[in-house]
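User: I'll paste a sequence; please echo it back and then give the predicted structure.

Assistant: Echoing your sequence first, then the prediction.
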Amino acid sequence: MPTDHNPLIHNDSRSIGGREILLFLAALPLFGFPAFWLLPDHSMLSLLGLFFGVGLAAVLVAVAPLGRAAVPALGFRTVGWRPLLFGTLGTTAVSIAVSQIGLEPQGVKQAMRIAQEPAAFLLSLALLAGLAPLVEELVFRGLLYGWLESRWGAGLAFIVSSLAFAAAHVEPAHALLVLPLGLLFGWLRWRTGSLWPSLVAHMANNGLAVAAAALLGM
């Protein structure tokens, strides 16, 4: 099997399989459509909360059959402090570099505009720097990466999951801006065998963006 030669896959853990991917894809509309229909407020923050909340629920349903093995299968493996620090600093540098391109995706501007509202700052921080990175890392560097790695190797998993992460942002300008970050997050996952470095870096990056938007709006 493809995982036999991967030292990062422990004997007491299982890999993400096609069943988990299908469960995730089935759970998304099963939870998403009723939740959207029942949502009383269709403001941007409410929609973001619903979107990422549904995504988290779908991930949990998908890996439920794995039991405790879901934790290492998703990439939650012990890693030292150096990859966490390097990932965070590297992400900050990449974010600063891509910001010089001058592109301003409409979705990003709307989210940052909301973060500038004092009453919405804490909720924006929780959603954009907490829930959103968690769900995106679980989906792209957890489920998708784990499934691809177990079948075609870590190299392909790194490339495909990074491209899928960028494409999921839909808006072309936004996808272009996050592609370098997706490649860095994917590389961290590949090199360390752990989801923690990309997750910490992703949360730090979004948190700094929300905080910067709030300060600029003061």
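The chain has one domain: 2-216. The first helix runs from residue 18 to 38.
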